[in-house]
């Protein structure tokens, strides 16, 4: 038992240390890049002719702007506390002599939400299935089981729309602004260019639903065997397929019951009540859960797992950066409040600092997790107007989009980079 307690502390410490080291490497790379840009600018000014300097003015200004507004922002890590809880000794319970350990992660105070606007995209009661932000403050959305995708701005105005020949589940966008649209009825994914023309269709054996684009450009596709949640069977072997955009090579994960080489970083089951927010049990498999794992490109992939042990929920999100070494689930201890509805994750998003946001349909809430999948707090609840959230996304300007019931979209201000720099890093 003492070995198990020591292992728990070592793994918690390793996870936090690894995260800090990865962020440090990002900063070092950013500093090196800034120095190189400054040297290049100085060489042009010192050695170039007047004509060359004038011609290079635009590029020099762009380089200086990238230095003034760096793409990498350092934030103080969420403080991790590990408590030892002694156990009441019973003669028959030798294991009780050692007590237990609980870890507690402090919720970051720089994460605050401020609602900017909410609007309805139709007069019906359909849900907003997917929100896929673009690079200019707009987002592609799908509503209900229709064949239409819409491009809207943050005020809900429709910029343009396109009808595909089938009902639509999810939308993903790559760095070239190509759209990937999953059509479950036809068991295919449509690739659409900026002129809204279908340039390619990829057909599958299963029903393609959840989509994500990794930082290396690979397409991840959730392929459940059932068309709807209600047709799910424990006998189904649902998979995630990774498709390389350059070679069209495909890799299937999940056929043997494991996802992404079986390296599970963490599992999040949600909560039965706010009394046990964030508490986990390795034996608790009766609820839906989120699973953080790695693909062969060392990218962290977050998927939802059904209550029968297969990957039932067709939602997926990819984020880059860190690998970990089988990080155990943390146990957060909040103040007791009230009962919650069964965990029903419908949408996942990751912010630029590694936090995971989960749209919980049943409890009308958004769960905020840290980079290791540990619960931090409920970010938004029905008290904030949440109703049946089914889709969630963060755009490049840091605005949080949440779609839900009654075809409603809510837009929030989320993390502001300058607010993350107000206090120095502190750890206990």
From TrEMBL:
Domain of life: Eukaryota
Residue ranges, compositional bias (Polar residues): 281-296
Region (Disordered): 275-296, 318-344
InterPro entries found in the cross-reference section: 6-blade_b-propeller_TolB-like
Protein's name according to its UniProt entry: Tripartite motif-containing protein 2
Organism of provenance: Mytilus edulis (Blue mussel)
